From TrEMBL:
Keywords: Kinase, Phosphoprotein, Transferase, Two-component regulatory system. It comes from Tolypothrix tenuis PCC 7101. This is histidine kinase. The keyword Cytoplasm does not apply. It comes from the Bacteria. CDD domains: HisKA, REC_PA4781-like. Residues 12-128 form the Response regulatory domain. It is an enzyme of class 2 (transferase). One of its GO terms (molecular function) is phosphorelay sensor kinase activity. It holds the Pfam family Response_reg. Its EC number is 2.7.13.3. InterPro entries: CheY-like_superfamily, HATPase_C_sf, HATPase_dom, His_kinase_dom, HisK_dim/P_dom, HisK_dim/P_sf, Sig_transdc_His_kin-like_C, Sig_transdc_resp-reg_receiver. Gene3D superfamilies: 1.10.287.130, 3.40.50.2300, Histidine kinase-like ATPase, C-terminal domain. The modification 4-aspartylphosphate is found at D61.
Length: 446
């Protein structure tokens, strides 16, 4: 409002009436009471005056040429800037329907001509006091909303910190415990294979030197099927070697993901973090009863080392990849449900589950930032929901399948901790793409 602290100033009143005598009368009466008064002879002048200086109260006549009071009020209420200004109608019309229409178009009060000065002053003061009260309530509501948003942010941050510490310790502990025995197995498999081959060679040499074995040896050779065992040993050793190598890759991925033994901020290879998250999610990428295996399409750009909080950024990759897999799973379930219920109306409904994909792109921009995009080809996200995706505790997943914290935590990590940006781009039936962009260097690291 335009109220100030001067004792002789009570507010800014705009009087709109096409009768000059009425304008002079109202202006003189209100000015004597300490109000600042502006006058308008018609509706268009009134709208222009409101745009120049927003009044605290408008006294509005109904019967005016070109644009009557009802039309003026409707124009005022349709404009976001003037919508909250209280409008008091002053008119000689005393019919109940006229009064009802005045309130329907947005008027807050109605004074019938001829009016009493004390009545007009009293009603104006009531509206100004009410408006002041509304503004105070709105300010308090804004403060409460800010406090609530801050509390939610603190809760999310606390949850994230606890999760990261617990997850980092758990992952690092598992990686450490598994690393020792698997290193022993992996390191000795090569020697075991060589020793077995030596024994096979010795047996072959014996067979050449003593082509006629004893009855006992012939019986043993027949029982164990020596030819099959010697051939299958090589296959077994190859399988064991590949299995041990896979476990070793998982251990390395766990170590890269947790980064438990590294400084909080460090120059790292972003691609290693993404690959580590993919290794940990390998079991979710496999074929299910609802869909084929999810294909991972990588389009990695040439990136230098990026200064970041590695473990937390890895957490973002994990959240986004998990969400992409969830979206593809849900898309497959929805498509199958539509196929079974209304196949004749939706013959192409199952196309979404034929080739589920997650496309990962990275690039170095001209602005010296790193951009990471993770996209799926699921059902997408409704436009009405996209503005709330990064709010704490908001989730698009079915009840019981999401906490609504993953994207909120990701937003805090990317935007607040890395001074970056995260955005979602999605259209119905065309999947969703989440794009992260962070600076190549962080100021506090330089």
């Amino acid at each position: 409002m335009n109220l100030n602290n001067k004792n002789d100033y009570k507010g800014n009143i705009l009087v709109v009436d096409d009768t000059p005598n009425n304008l002079r009368l109202l202006s003189a009466m209100l000015t004597s009471q300490g109000y600042e008064v502006r006058k308008a002879l018609n509706g268009k002048m009134a709208l222009t005056a409101c745009r120049v200086v927003l009044p605290d109260v408008i006294l509005l006549d109904i019967n005016m040429p070109e644009m009557d009071g009802y039309q003026v009020c409707q124009e005022l209420k349709s404009d976001r800037v003037t919508a909250e200004v209280p409008v008091i109608f002053i008119s000689a019309l005393d019919d109940v329907l006229d009064k009802v229409k005045a309130f329907e178009v947005g008027g807050v009060d109605y004074i019938t001509k001829p009016f009493h000065g004390a009545e007009v002053i009293s009603r104006i003061e009531n509206q100004i006091n009410l408006r002041l009260f509304q503004i105070q309530i709105q300010e308090k509501n804004n403060l409460l909303q800010d406090a609530l948003d801050s509390l939610k942010a603190v809760q999310v941050q606390q949850i994230q910190n606890e999760k990261m510490v617990a997850l980092g310790q758990l992952v690092a502990g598992i990686a450490h415990e598994v690393n020792n025995p698997i290193s022993f197995i992996y390191g000795n498999l090569q020697y075991a294979g060589e020793y077995i081959q030596d024994l096979v060679n010795i047996i072959a040499a014996y067979q050449q030197e003593y082509p006629q074995p004893t009855t006992k040896i012939e019986k043993i050779v027949k029982e164990v099927d020596l030819n099959f065992v010697t051939k299958d040993l090589q296959t077994l050793m190859g399988a064991m070697y590949r299995g041990a190598d896979r476990i070793r890759e998982i251990v390395i991925a766990l170590q890269n993901f947790s980064r438990h033994d590294e400084a909080l901020m460090k120059q790292v290879n972003i691609h290693e973090g993404i690959d580590s998250a993919l290794v940990m999610l390998q079991h979710r990428l496999r074929e299910t009863t609802h869909r084929p295996a999810i294909a991972i399409l990588k389009e990695y750009g040439s990136l230098p080392l990026v200064t970041c909080y590695a473990s937390e950024l890895n957490q973002v990759f994990m959240h986004l990849l998990n969400n992409a897999i969830d979206a593809l799973d849900q898309s497959a379930i929805n498509s199958q449900t539509r196929d079974s219920q209304q196949n004749e109306h939706c013959p192409n409904a199952s196309l979404l589950i034929q080739n589920p994909q997650i496309h990962i792109r990275t690039e170095l921009t001209e602005a010296n930032t790193v951009k990471i995009a993770i996209a799926d080809n699921g059902l997408g996200i409704e436009e009405s929901l996209q503005s709330s995706l990064f709010n704490p505790f908001f989730t698009t997943k079915p009840v019981g399948q999401g906490s609504g914290l993953g994207l909120s935590i990701s937003y805090q990590i990317v935007v607040q901790k890395h001074r970056g940006k995260i955005a979602c781009f999605s259209s119905p039936r065309e999947g969703a793409e989440f794009v992260i962009e962070i600076p190549l260097e962080q100021p506090e690291y330089l």
